[in-house]
User: Fold YgfZ/GcvT domain-containing protein from Aquamicrobium soli.
Amino acid sequence: MPFAVLSDRTILTVSGPDAEHFLQNILTLDLDKLGQGEAKPGALLSPQGKILFDFLISRDGGDGFRLECRKDIAADFLRRLTLYRLRAKVELSVEDQAVVAVSWGSDSDASQTDSTWAADARFGKGTVRRLYGAELPPSLPPPHKREGNEGTAAWHAFRIAHGIAESGSDYALGDAFPHDVLLDQTGGVGFQKGCYVGQEVVSRMQHRGTARRRVLIASGESALPAPNTEIVAGGKALGALGSVTGRHGLAIVRIDRVKDALDAGQPITAGNVAIDLAIPDWATFTFPQQAGAEDV
Assistant:
């Protein structure tokens, strides 16, 4: 069972009788569709529709929620949620000692009887499970066997291969719309729910079909250059690399410009490396038939 302890992740808890109503009114995802034992992606947006904080959210008991996020943004995330709390009967806290781990692969459901695990909804059913708790369960290997190939590097390689982007590694907070990073594809945006912060912009992008920046999987003829390297074709910038592992990586690019380059037979490069760009096989969007539409 491949697994990794994600030391750069932590848990923010939201509990109390108003917790679900409070979160439903400000977050992008629809909590009515969040089941027990699953972790779904979501975001808190600016009024302009840009992602301020990204996370995975799961239920924690009767009226509680866990929001798994980057450890370096947790304090700011807590402060922002506190600003929205007003008179809502909720309690907010960061679990500084929380353990966040992940297991993946065909046998990742081996610990389903352990209630501290939640299925990561961004991947196929049972493919990835998240662990939240004060300590690792005894079902995982002992500490002296937790190094080697099955660690964070292997986890990020798996994530990259599946086209799953995360802030910090693939994009900067405050600089991306939910569509840019495929939250509309992974269940991270509820298009049938009521209003939430930034909802008007996101809804307009969805209904007008104006989303042009998308996460694609990049494959190089040789090892890819460093993250943030510009991707170009025919002298025109398409976007930039995000996470990279060897010859493979993620890229947020203008898919209309990618299609123009493909139609013209122009090589696409990152640095001096020729690359191919592909839509993740689970995604439902396609390259546009007509290029040139601009983002919101």
